[in-house]
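Q: Convert this sequence to structure tokens.
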Amino acid sequence: MHYVIVGSSAAATAAAKSIRRLDNGGRITLISKDGAFFSRCQLHLLAAGRRTAQQADFMPADWQERERIEVLWNTEVVGIDTEAGRLSLGDASTISYDRLLIATGSRSWAPPIEGLAGAMTFGLRDMSDAESILAALPGVETVSIIGAGLVGCELAAELSQAGKKVNIIELAPYPLPMQLEQVTGAHCAELMQSAGISLFCSRKVVGVERDGNGNPESVLLDDGSRLASDMIVAAAGVRPNIEWLADSLVATDPKGILINEYGQTSVENVFAAGDVTVMEDVLLRAVMPSPIWPTAVHQGRIAGMNMAGGCESLTRNTGFRASVRLLGTNIVSLGPVSRPDPAWEKQEVSYTNSRGQNCAKVIYFENNQIRAAILWGDITDAGVYAEVIINQRDLPHERSFAAVLDGAKFGQEEKNLL
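A:
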């Protein structure tokens, strides 16, 4: 049996491990357009010079040899013939498979802004992006980042601490709009501004002015203001890497490859996992991407088991789970906090810890169930919240746990908002 995996990140490597555990004699070939394993969670650190490529490698050095995995590095897949079970590669060669996993992930998307494309404009989605940003930094004084999501905020924090002046522009009224709400969003804005980051929320970039050499000079906002900029990073969104499937029988929608609960696509013996896929989210009951590392690992593990003859189902599939440490502050976001149901009750608990740090818990209830939660500063029992939210379990004592027990330790102000 020849298993071929396209990709080399979380989902791909998790699948390879699962296959090898169940099929000790099968041939496994992993095809990667990159030149090494790397964690996307570390790219902002690589771009700012805080990590090396070797430090971002999340796989053991002897993994390929120990698990007998053949890896084709710096190799791009450009087409597929599902009837023949064959992939076309960028060097005009082909490779056949018995079972295939597609784990090609996603890439940065640059919004259609006049003047944005050009020199000193970057995304941040793969190793080459991070290396390009790092190489250009010595000649840069001011960086403008479009988008205050996780990628934009983490990069802004690192570049600011590296001594660069940083502007960050966001359409939403506060940073991290997918992970936070008004109260914690205000905390985040204050945190970033205290670090010297210039934050422009509820603003839109409408153009980029460039000099005679094609380098950026300023970013234009919709209120007429100009932000001096030597470098621009577009961190406003991603697109799935599915173009090479355009003429195939693998079913896709604009957001990715459609998979079922077994990680299977619409084509027999073709599976998919990770950021390139869409399936039903257990919390919203909507077909959508789940672009987080733990879910990619889970999808890859289950798909790999099923490729090797197992019959396991994906459970707890959701992208509404984030944990980040931003400028020394721990933040955990669980559930669809950016899309709360109007029927949910919102409870806010705020306090100051022994180090004088602002802490908050924002919890959304429906009857005796917690539907979503944000833990700001103090992430105690984050695992308990995750278990209750993702498995949608009743926890009748959770209100006293969240609002009284924690508050009694520090002194707190409580608000109940309907």
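Residues 293-307 form the longest helix (15 residues).
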